[in-house]
Amino acid sequence: MAPEISNDATSPPRWVIDLNSPPKPKPKNAATISNPPGYSEASIGKRSASSRNSNVRKPPTTEETDTLKLKKSWELALAPAKALPMNAIMMYMSGNSLQIFSIMMVFMLFKNPITGLMQTHEVFRRYETEGNRESMLAVKGCYVLMQLLALGLGVWKVNGMGLLPTTRSDWLAWERERTHLERAVFAFR
C-alpha cells in the first residue's frame, strides 16, 4: 500500500491520518477466522461423556501419598548437604584474617544450621503421617547429621581464624604455677 501523495499543502500527511483514525473493528465471530495451518477440529472434536470419564485420574491412595511425601522429605533432608561444598569453598576463599566479610560469613555458617536444628520438627511436620512416621525418623536423623556437618564446617573455619582456644597459651589464666620439687644452685669454688 503506497502512501498517497497529496497536492494540497494544507492536508496532513497520510501517517497522521492513519494515526488519528481508529483501526477497523475486527469481526467478533470466530467462524470468520480461519484455522491455523496444521489444525484440524477432527483431532480435538467434541468428546463424548464416556471418553471424558475414562481420562479422569483416580485420586492417589494413601500409600502413594506417603511415598511421595517421603521422597520430598528426603530431598529436604539432603538439601543442607548440597550447600556444604559451596560453603566450604566460600570459607576457604575468604581467608583466615579477621575481616567483616569473613566474620559475617562465619556468623551465617553458624546461624543457619542452629536454626535448622531448632526447627527440625516444624520442617518435617507437613510430610509426616501415621503411615510414614517410622521412616521419618531416619529422614530427621539425616537432616540433623547434615546440619551438624555444616556446624563442623563453621568450627573448622573459626579454628582456622584462630578464634578457638585450642593451645596451652589460651588457658594460662587458669593454670597454676608449678611447684618445684628441688632446686639446683650453682656454687662457685
Q: How is this structure best described in words?
A:
The protein has 189 residues and is mainly α. The protein is built from 7 helices and no strands. The protein has helices at 14-20, 41-44, 49-54, 62-94, 100-118, 120-124, 133-160. α5 (100-118) runs antiparallel to α7. The model has no long low-confidence stretch (mean pLDDT 84).
Which features characterize this protein?
mainly alpha; 7 helices; 0% strand
- Rounded to an integer in angstroms, the radius of gyration calculated over CA atoms is 38 Å
Helix and strand composition category: mainly alpha
CA distance, first residue to last residue: 129 Å
Number of separate strands: 0
Q: Main β-sheet: number of strands, strand sense, barrel status?
A: none
Helix content: 40-55%
Our estimate of the beta-strand percent is under 5%
Pattern of helices and strands: HHHHHHH
Which stretches are low in confidence, meaning pLDDT under 50 for 5 or more residues running? none
Overall average residue pLDDT: 84
Which term fits the overall shape? elongated
